[in-house]
Amino acid sequence: MCGIVGIVGREEVAERLLDGLRRLEYRGYDSAGIATDHGGRIERRRASGKLVNLARELAADPLPGCTGIAHTRWATHGGPTTNNAHPHATDEVAVVHNGIIENFKALRDELIGRGRVFTSETDTEVVAHLVSEKVEAGFDPVGAVREVLPRLHGAFALAILFRKHPDMLIGARLGSPLVVGYGEGETYLGSDALALGPLTQRIAYLDEGDWVVCTEEGAQVYDRDNKPVERAVTISGVTGELVSKGNHRHYMLKEIYEQPIVVAQTLRSYLQRMEERVTLPIPEFDLSAIKRVTIVACGTSFYAGMVAKYWFEQFARVPVDLDVASEFRYRAPVMEPGGLMIVISQSGETADTLAALRHAKAEGQTIAAVVNVPTSSMAREADLLLPTHAGPEIGVASTKAFTCQLAVLAALAANLAHAKGLFKDGEERQIVRHLGEAPAALNAALAYDESIQEMAGAVAGARDVLYLGRGTDYPLALEGALKLKEISYIHAEGYAAGEMKHGPIALIDENVPVIVIAPSGPLFEKTVSNMQEVQARGGKVILISDYDGIQAAGEGCIATITMPKVHPLIAPLVYAVPVQLLAYHVAVAKGTDVDQPRNLAKSVTVE
Ligand code: HGA
Predict the structure, then answer these.
(1) Domain end residue (candidates: 235, 267, 296)
(2) What is the number of alpha carbons within 13 Å of residue 45 lying toward its C-beta?
């Protein structure tokens, strides 16, 4: 999840590189750095912590040069210090890297054995030394990189700057994304098209194993066998504007409030309101033969997948396997022919999920990707692209991407049921109607923001918090706990309500708030029984339900949150709002960094 930008051109680059990093800070904010080639020397500015620290450093000590590379880091190897900040450099070369060099230890020992001196604890520094050694031995940059790339195991996107060649940058990718941008008399490298938004819209995506030599005039791409290749240039459509917070204090709050609009926007591509049909953006894609569905994702996207498992089984009657992406391919999963794998990822770059996608593709599965970035690796590698239209999500804790993913997954489940001829009279029409009601219901849920803010104090002082739910509210309980952990640093766990009595109930005492998600409906009474088991042991319950549910079971709770009454199909979307707002207000009450919580990054591009 580190971010990379590079510019080779004729005008000063430092400010523009910094601007590129601002667009990539979602990938990590442990440290940042820039190197340029200037006056026959490689010069660097680096700073630990957020980008503002590097900006301050550059203001105090500007960095001249018309060719440069830049990096924002999410540390994997070595702490978030200035010494470990990229670019890593020798006298001859500077390198920025996204990924993990898995054989770095052996390479480092070998290099130390030859007298090379390391100044960081990172895996990346071996790349700088390996390339430098070749350059010092007389190889030109192209020859040096060609020699070194086969020695690197693991995943990398690299941008390399050469002291003696200020007119050139070399990039390479294996496992981590890298794009080439084409300008007028300038060429760029970037982790994604977003980073290059203000510089160019003309983008070529490198394939796995590609490496590229960039000069002012353009770029020459080579494939993994070192054969010159052409990679198509596409127009990214990314504008140069940075997304603003509007009138909101944090991006996260802005994004919570955007949900009615972006869910409506997303549903527009999937619901044919006139025909009362659910369709997919690729209408000719035939799902009728799908026998089994495998859903793979990480974090919040995984919980969206967990909700979808209930829907696929309920509507389309197909068996569904659900896996955390980082576990999937390491347990020799059995994938039968005719299976559909659904990968879910906001960025479409999540390394664990991407690896699972590739594994399943090699096993002959049809791949559907539910992603928010239509130019992402997953979008490009899937057979069926199912975009969410959430718009850029900047807050590290996912909110609007989650509810948009749910909207798409509900549509896909309904479409699969239709393709299999499983809908009885009027059923599809009902689904279209209920999904169509979601934006207004989300709006109604947002109206309770102030009352949720008022009760945040009851949670902010807690050391541990439990979330309980049944059915599709169980994944929401997990999501609520994840949100709280991520941004308030309070330990929280989500449980299936009925599972409490099998162990976790031992944790209950008067210091552990228990948040129960229980819309009135078929599972309400069972959930309320579990809630009463908690109350009987002195547990302090916050009940999230609708008016009827609160009337029936609100007594004895320390607080209640009233949601609009909605159909069970859209309850997971609507009930996402109070769990998001509760986590948000608790984090604000605790004074944490809501949009950039510690140790996290938005897009996780390492395994
Ligand atoms: N391994 C390198 C780069 C980390 C990275 O790509 N994170 O997403 C480091 O630790 O600096």
Answers:
(1) 235
(2) 22
| 117 Cα: distance to centroid of ligand 1 (angstroms) | 20
Quick one: tokens of 116? 């090379």
- For residue 176, the ligand 1 atom closest to its alpha carbon is 6
99 lines ligand 1 (CB under 6 A): yes
Domain boundary among 173, 203, 235: 235
Are 577 and 585 in contact, with CB atoms under 8 Å apart? no
Mutate to test the pocket of ligand 1, among 26, 124, 354 (most ligand atoms within 8 A of CB): 124
Q: What is the CATH number of the domain that holds 67?
A: 3.60.20.10
Pocket test for ligand 1, best of 2, 82, 354 (most atoms within 8 A of CB): 2
- Which range marks the domain in which residue 419 is found? 243-436
The single residue listed with the structure tokens 């949900």 is 259
Query: What distance in Å separates the CA atoms of residue 172 and residue 164, rounded to the nearest whole number?
Result: 20
Q: List pLDDT tens digits, range 20-77.
A: 999 888 888 999 999 999 889 999 999 999 999 999 999 999 999 999 999 999 999 9
pTM of the model: 0.90
CATH number for 521: 3.40.50.10490
Residue 473 has pLDDT above 70, yes or no: yes
Nearest atom in ligand 1 to 78's CA: 10
Determine the distance separating the centroid of ligand 1 and the alpha carbon of 438, expressed in angstroms: 40
Please give the C-alpha separations between residue 407 and each of 103, 205, 569, in angstroms, as whole numbers.
42, 29, 10
Mean pLDDT, the chain, as a whole number?
95
Task: Find the distance separating the first CA and the last CA of the chain, reported in whole Å.
Answer: 10
Q: 367 and 454: one domain?
A: no
Closest-CA residue, ligand 1 atom 6, reads 98
How does pLDDT run across 305-321, given as a tens digit for each residue?
999 999 999 999 999 99
Q: Is residue 315 part of a domain?
A: yes
Using the mean position of ligand 1's atoms as its centre, give its distance from the Cα of residue 242 in Å. Answer: 25
pLDDT at residue 388, as a whole number: 98
For residue 363, count CB atoms less than 10 angstroms from its CB and return exposed for 0-12, middle for 13-18, buried for 19 or more: middle
- Say if residue 87 is in the same domain as residue 228: yes
